[in-house]
Amino acid sequence: MSGEAVGAEAPKKTTLTVTVDGRAFEANPGELLIAAAERQGTYVPRFCWHPRMREVGMCRMCLIEVDGPRGPALLPACMLPVTEGMIVHTKSDTVKKAQDGVLEFLLINHPLDCPVCDKGGECPLQDQTLTFGPGETRFVEEKRHYEKPIAISELVYLDRERCILCDRCTRFSKEVAGDPLISFVSRGNLTEVNTFPEDPFSSYFSGNVVQICPVGALTAKPYRFAARPWDLDQVESTCTTCAVGCRVVMQSSGDRITRYQGVDSSAVNWGWLCDKGRFDFESTSAPDRLTHPQMRSAKGAALEKVTWYDAMSAAASALRGVSPERIGVLGGSRLTNEAAYAWAKLTKGVLRTDNVDAQMADGLSAEEWLGLPPATIDDLETASAVLVMAPDLKEQLPILFLRLRDAAVNHNVAVFELGPKATGISSIARHGLFHRPGEAAAAIRALLGAAAGTPLADHNIAGIEADALTAAGAALKAELGKGNGKFVVIFGRPNLAESAAATSEALAVLAARPETTFLPALRRSNLRGALELGLAPGVMPGRVSLADSRAWFAGRWPAMPEAKGKDTNAILHAAAHGEIDVVILLGCDPVADVPDHQVKEALAAIKTVIAVDTLPNATTPFADIVLPAAGYGEVNGTTTNLEGRVTRLAAKISAPGTARPDWMIAVELASHLGTEFGVESADQLTAEIGRTARSYLGLTVALASGDGVLMPLTQGADDDSAPAPPALLRLVPTTVTTAAPSPDAYSLRLVVSHVMYGHATMVAASASLAKLIVTTTLQLHPGEVERHALREGGLVKIVNQAGATVTLALRANPSVPRGTAFIAAGPEAAQLIENGAGVTKIRLEGAP
Amino acid sequence: MPQTTKMITSRFDQPDSFTLSGYERTGGYRALRKALAMEPAAVIEEVKAATLLGRGGAGFPCGTKWGFLPPTVFPRYLVVNGDESEPGTYKDRLLMELDPHQLIEGVLICSWAIKAKQAFLYCRGEMALAQERLAQALNDAYAAGYIGKNIMGTGWDLDVVLHWGAGAYIVGEETALIESLEGNRGMPRLKPPFFPASKGLYMQPTVVNNVETLANLPWIVNNGASAFTAIGDPKAPGTRMFALSGHVNRPGVYEVDFGTTTFREMFEDPSLGGGIRNGGKVKAFIPGGASAPWFFEEHLDMALHPGPVGAAGSMLGSGAIVVFDETTDMVKAAWRIVKFFAKESCGKCSPCREGTNWLEKIYRRILDGHGRPEDIDLLMDVADNISPGLAWPPRQTTICPLGPSAASPIMSSVRRFRHEYEAYVNRGGGAT
């Protein structure tokens, strides 16, 4: 009886009862009234409040009445945490008068130029005036005037007359992006938002302020006067500019993409987008899009338009009868999961070659890291410590940078940075450890050693002062002792001018520590999906090894490769030696992207180069057959982001000319080669992936909708179907120990990494972004500039050990350590890199 | 004859009142010695017993305010509000210029009582002489060992930072002052959650006290709470400084016993206001700063006491009394005050930023002869949208009371002198 009584006792209430307009409901402690009410269907009008930013309560639009001991009080719902028993009125006469009053105040100086304003039709001020505001104004005086509009950056216009001073853009810049480049200027009625003189709003995140502006004060140049909101048709999709996988709404007008808007996906981007992702839609309508298949009659001849049938036949005949090890397939990160799977099936299951690599020799071996214990982006917020051993996140994965910044700034997560130079995250990192290029493993060992209390052997390890290492180690130990003890490592290759071995070894050192989880800083859009789905040597679709999955694929695929194949480096190396007859390029540009100075010779030695792409690039001159692919926004399917989240991609516009989806090209080429895949749509491929690929088992289009689903999926993995699915890859720690090359006082070690507006085909094809492309410079520490007696801005001849030379202008940059030189990734840097060398050493010669 | 005890202005006539030697010679820093010998809690109790009402405007009991600090959260700060900027208010300026050490001793006593190790002295930007004298006084007090490390061998350290404002009235509002001290734009924070006692400077517990309030502390410590409460009214003990201006013969700052002197005495007494200019009559007066609703002749015999003044619908506020004689154009007088608030609005809240400026424009239109009959009610309704109900104490659609302050002169003048407004809008010219 007593037992029953205990069992029947109501569990302690964890929610609070709030009554809004006579309707009681449960709200969560700490929740703001404005959010709780909205969840329950009562929309309280607002301008300044934004759920992803700190509340300021300054527009006063959300005033509501709350019953109190001294009668109802008028309070802003955006700054009011719910309390038990709170009784709220949002439609009382007092509230109505306050709303009328605030809207009238906001409108007295707001120009009524709605007919020519980009925001008209989707303007919160317009909408809320209609719903909550007075019918007419009583203001007869002259309105405030400012110069209309002013360009505050290359991408954003500001029309101060329309501004209602809600502080959203300024708060975003300061609090979210950490780029306080716009601010309130002057005071009171004359307050305006503006930049500092001579200092434009050159933030990588500037487009977000346009999206969150509640009026038409901030407009984006690429969208200005491009369409009216009521003419736009839209669909939700995922941005594939980088591998973060931000959710977007893709809007089009007249079969042209006109705009992307960020969607608040709580797992990923919170509504934010970087400018590169937001504005590179312009490349979909670039004039040089590939629209028809092209071929050369002979090497050196010009490309000529041909029919799909002729191009396919030519490709099939080039491939037919070629021994699998003489075929190579490069690229695939641009593809959807479905296309990546179809191409994997064609190359591995039909052509039986395992010389397949989606990475452009700028990553780490997929086999090594795909099986590491995974971390999600959300884990950053709750981790006890985060170690970043990756390329500059701000430059390459901007929204991941914002999430890490939020974790560090708003959740006090300790961030440790370890790399060859300071980066965009250095300002939020508690400890920055900058080691000599090529010596990451030694630095990691010393850091973990210091954390374990091991005295350091030397006063300087890998170029880092022992004191700094000791302090960082002690801090790491302290942080991991707090909270949940979660240790997240964001990893990637911070330097393309050194071999991947040093990073692999560092990773192995970290992986040996239990309870460490890993988030790969993959740069290219669907690289994770391409690797998971088999576009990597030794890996079969579903994150399984070639060796382990033979039984599984035996009944599913026509064939399989005999043995593990070559990676991109090895394929190009073999090609240079005449050992490769056909190379298929899946949306990749090895000339620009593979960090090696001998790519062109290798490509020139291949009999047939087949390129499948959306735009011509630096490698197109080497292609014998060019197949036009439907690009982003033109194909349906799914994609996988860097953390392994599968989300949907939507087709919004039709592909130009006769361009076809990549998956269709694979299916047809298989057909030309005599194998029918029996697939007629992307959805059928999604279903096939869900049946076949171990890490995607059970995937359906519905599962991938919205915020998507995190891999590995396991549905059906325990079925009694014979044979049992193969095991997922497990980490094989690398045992290679890289010998630290001896420091050389007379040379500099090269660091090469991608920057936001660097060499990228889609950036160059987007008119608005193309203007932002930065000129490649040689960047040295000011002390090195002095030591070499060089002049900033002057031209410097750079010579590598093999004698290759490149001439670049010099820039002093204190974030580059002494003894090191930085060049942004691109053709100039590629000229200097010797793939396979541990580190790239260069020397400088003064003005040529 | 009104009671006038010289409690905090006792050194004002002394030529070297602002020097350390002048201060020490007249009993300076004795109270500090005495306070340091007491437990901090005992000092708080003494101040609580003295019922020292805050002299900044709100009149909140000082000791009670100190008691709001959460007991276990450190560091905590003392911030001195020396941003006296209300039109007609200039009492704190004199305290800073003529007796800076008295204020510093008050700062030391308060900091000891609340266990602060850092105090910030925020001095209005325009008060050059006050800044200069405070800076000198702080340097001398540091050199003499009153401020700094191990003060008088107690092991207690205190640093006092002198900070100059940049010319904004709004930073007299305590949360805006804190924002300004932190290096941000002077814009108020919403209370709650940002009550300085719990989330103040750098989000730490903070006491913000007015200059005059702190200047009372040495006297209270020296003479005891009971001596303090023996002066003035028991509910508003001690003395209070008033800055008297407008149409009186002797404008100036006067220290009088709190709660006992009447407005009539303040205006007429030969030692105080000395009568209305040209033998005229009072048409109206502002009892406590530009933001206070106006009083009229029927209020003349009311004591300068927060109780009755509050009950009559106004306040003693910052201690600035402005007298209007019968020659005053009340529309112009109201316009001048509204213009001040319009100019000083920080721009944070829409109703204040847009509303005060709209009101000022309507006034200018009326004064320029372009008023419409409906403008009078429009003034009242726009004011009502900033301060719903146009009542006292004011309700507000804004974060701080600056916006509603602009409503005070409008409602006072329209309600009492509507005919003057009507004369403007009907004749298209001046009232007289």
Summed up, what is this model?
Chain A is α/β, with parallel strands linked by helices.
Structural description of this entry:
The complex is a heterodimer of chains A (848) and B (432). Chain A is built from 27 helices and 40 strands. In chain A, 26% of the residues lie in helices and 20% in strands. In chain A, helix 8 crosses helix 22 (662-672). A seven-stranded mixed β-sheet of chain A has the order 15-14-29-28-27-16-17, covered by helices on one side. A six-stranded mixed beta barrel of chain A has the order 35-39-36-38-37-40. The longest helix of chain A is centred in the first third of the chain and has 16 residues, at 93-108. Chain A is an alpha/beta fold and 848 residues long. With 432 residues, chain B is an alpha/beta fold. Chain B folds into three domains: 20-224, Rossmann fold; 231-321, Ubiquitin-like (UB roll) (Roll); 330-427, de novo design (two linked rop proteins). Chain B has 17 helices and ten strands. The longest helix of chain B is centred in the last third of the chain and has 26 residues, at 402-427. Chain B starts with 19 loop residues before the first helix and ends in a 5-residue tail after the last helix. Classes of the chains: A alpha/beta (848), B alpha/beta (432). The A-B interface holds A 56-61, 63, 73-74, 76, 79, 81, 94, 97-98, 100-102, 104-106, 108-109, 138-139, 141, 164-165, 184, 187-191 and B 168, 185, 187, 190, 193, 342-351, 353-358, 361-362, 365, 378, 382, 384-386, 388, 395-399.
The computed structural class of chain A is alpha/beta
Spatial arrangement of strands, main beta sheet of chain A = 15-14-29-28-27-16-17
Shape of chain B: globular
Helix segment tally of chain A: 27
Architecture of one domain in chain A in CATH? 3-Layer(aba) Sandwich
Q: β content of chain A, as a range? A: 15-25%
Q: What's the N-to-C terminus distance of chain A?
A: 96 Å
